[in-house]
């Protein structure tokens, strides 16, 4: 039976103290729905974003028969059905279970696993982390204690290219050459055998749960642990019989060039290459520059220890609380930010969790929030006018329906391609639309697709469709000619299929009329345009579903106007212009070093 979510609020004891979660999170799931103004909402977790052709068809059928005919893609590569009726519970769960989309009802909300969507396709990574995702999913569903993880707790499995390492996950695995992987949790980094990587991620999650119980604040995520709270990752690895060595941040995959996807109008992919961003050689954070002290105040170790010299007699099914031992215990991102995380995402107490802040994460009226970073505080920046009588919706503004000729080679990053921050301060673009080594890459305009668009993705030659954290799809296994033909079909269906599309990198929350908190119909107001930074249109200060890394924040203020802000490197810089469209265009052209600053008062003009 589908259940409605109870309200969940974070509380504080005194100013400056860490938050206290006094109940479980209220993230929606496939069996526990969120009630919205447009009906109920179900969120289905897709570990690694993986779907079979049959599962794609089942989701299209569910969207048509039970929901509003569409599927929404989240920033974790999960999918949502909106507009569900009150009595659809049994039919929805039966459809999903029969298609293999609900391997364990008790674990359905904790299967939060993102993985490099091009792993095993383009030859750039060090491991096929999609295989890790399947193994980790099986491990999560096979253990009772993992149901204690919140619906927000996130695993990221990066094949070494750095594409998902910056998505703010709680536990991150990054594949390395030589068959090893780096395990990251908070400020702790351990090198483990690649064959043990999924088990190592599970052990790290168990260490977090033990630390959360010890802290007593009900933390849902690693960054919510109190500052200074130890997390016994080393002990958890040893207890699981996994050898691990304390290390620093890893480097990106070795290739010197990064081939971009082949647009439908171009020739051989050998002509499409752009320099790879600098390798991730950033200095270690302060807490990793020297090994931290062990519990009990003992001096810092002279050398990083090598773990796993002895195997534990048994691996308990339920992780035990961390106990003082020779193995070091490390702090949380409250002390040092995690690899690839932005300054905002590693804050100990997110601004939206502060007392009185609207829409605290996990609130029942914030269904998108669990798939997004914790909403930043209101910026209070100047506003750009929204013109009366502006185009009524994306279709009126030119949503893609046909492939556009790019007129030249695709470049990484493509215009408007979402990007993530690396430890060295560079940005790595998400996969651009096109054809790459027999795989078709497309994006969903504003992260939403119809049932017919879903069906256009299949049949898949390898019986595999991958949903990406950038609200797109990867369909591998074609010959190059067949891939170009499928790309044309998907362009006709309305997908973003070209690296030069003005809709690339444009996102929006649900907005009106579906969300009661929204102050505007942001999906109708969103406009296309070229630019280096992704842009996200938000109907309220929660900014549900906004991207990670550097981005342009377009926030509705409730008076027919919007605030436009560039959020980069932990800073927020207001941008104004004669019209809203011009302000957004200026903001998207910004970089870390050239952020436009203005002190003029915005005027009310038409677009």
UniProtKB/TrEMBL annotation:
Biased composition (Low complexity): 295-315, 346-366, 372-421
PANTHER family named among the record's database cross-references: BLR3264 PROTEIN, FERREDOXIN--NITRITE REDUCTASE, CHLOROPLASTIC
Pfam families tied to this protein: NIR_SIR_ferr
UniProt protein name: Cobalamin biosynthesis protein CobG
Biased composition (Pro residues): 284-294
Top-level taxonomy: Bacteria, Bacillati, Actinomycetota, Actinomycetes, Kitasatosporales
A molecular function (GO) term: metal ion binding
Domain Nitrite/Sulfite reductase ferredoxin-like span(s) in chain numbering: 39-87
